[in-house]
Design brief:
The chain is α/β, with parallel strands linked by helices. The chain contains twelve helices and 13 strands. The chain has a domain of 207 residues: NAD(P)-binding Rossmann-like Domain (Rossmann fold).
């Protein structure tokens, strides 16, 4: 297993906003390096590590955000709202984070995705315009611009880390999550959307977290978005086959969700409608370029098999 690398973390309190898959991964990477860590959520999670401080706050409330981030040196923004309600939920959340970090003098590291670019031709790189017009993509661009505008104004230090579809421990809702890994381990056919035979970059959640730590620690990297390192791009089918091989289970045929069925479901289910907005990522090659990050920080993406081994191990523990 890859050992924690040395990162010159700032002294003081490192505050992780959210305790979903990415927040948990960031928390783990910070703890592995001996940092003083707090986690902000609406309710303190039952499984929060003992030496991590739990802070309850609704960060969409500016005053609550000021209190929650009062002691922060670095804040890692890993919070999301319900997928189909991002346009309503994310702007006030980011406004609260900016307000709290400004008051505390904290650096903000924003864990973002690639939606803001919208459909693209060719590799996805940081030089692309944030041209998304669909609701979830447009709002991701909007909140990123708000954060970086605060950086430009000198209100705070900020940097944006962007990853592709996650896989790894605690990742269930993803094209490389429970529908593939969990089902294969249960002896069921993996379920996917789009064309599983096209190249599609995936991001190992621990690599994303490590990248957020590195970006937060490097002041010269602030003020822009970076694509985090990913293992070499494969197809979703190849990912499923790798999971089966590493786990020692049968490689079962894929079940591809029918597009017409999803369109019908979208009429009644807002989350399905939101998923269809990013269908473009699964019907054309989706290859993410992280060359700029690798040139500055090195390419520390975890080896494919090790990343899958860690993913499988976590799923097996959950199944006990």
């Amino acid at each position: 297993m890859k050992s924690p690398s040395t990162i010159p973390l700032a002294d003081g309190l490192h505050v992780v906003l959210g305790f979903g898959p990415l927040g948990r991964a960031v928390c783990a990477e910070l703890m592995a390096r001996g940092a003083d860590v707090a986690v902000v959520t609406r309710q303190v999670p039952d499984d929060l590590p003992e030496r991590v401080r739990g802070i309850e706050a609704d960060l969409a409330d500016p005053e609550a955000a000021r209190v929650a981030l009062a002691d922060a040196t670095v804040a890692y923004q890993c919070l999301n709202g319900p997928y189909s309600r991002w346009p309503q939920v994310l702007p006030p959340l980011m406004d609260g984070v900016i307000t709290g970090a400004d008051r505390a003098g904290a650096t903000v590291v924003f864990g973002d995705n690639l939606y803001a670019y919208g459909p693209v031709d060719g590799p996805v790189h940081e030089g692309l315009p944030e041209a998304a017009t669909f609701p979830n993509g447009a709002v991701r661009g909007r909140i990123t611009r708000a954060l970086l505008a605060a950086h430009e104004a000198g209100d705070l230090q900020a940097v944006v880390a962007r990853g592709s579809d996650f896989f790894g421990p605690h990742v269930r809702v993803s094209i490389a999550g429970a529908g593939v890994v969990g089902r294969l381990l249960a002896g069921q056919r993996p379920q996917v959307i789009g064309n599983p035979d096209l190249p599609h970059t995936l991001t190992f959640i621990a690599d994303f977290a490590e990248a957020m730590l590195r970006l937060g620690a490097d002041g010269a990297a602030h003020g822009r978005a970076w694509h985090v390192p990913n293992p070499p791009t494969e197809t979703v089918r190849a990912f499923a086959e790798r999971v089966a091989r590493v786990a020692g289970v049968p490689s079962l045929p894929l079940q591809v969700a029918p597009y017409l069925g999803m369109r019908i479901a979208a009429l009644f289910a807002p989350p399905v409608k939101a998923v269809l907005q990013v269908r473009y990522q699964t019907v054309k090659p989706w290859v993410v370029d992280h060359g700029a990050y690798a040139e500055r920080f090195g390419d520390h993406a975890t080896d494919w098999d090790e990343a899958v081994e860690r993913t499988v191990a976590w799923y097996r523990v959950q199944a006990r």
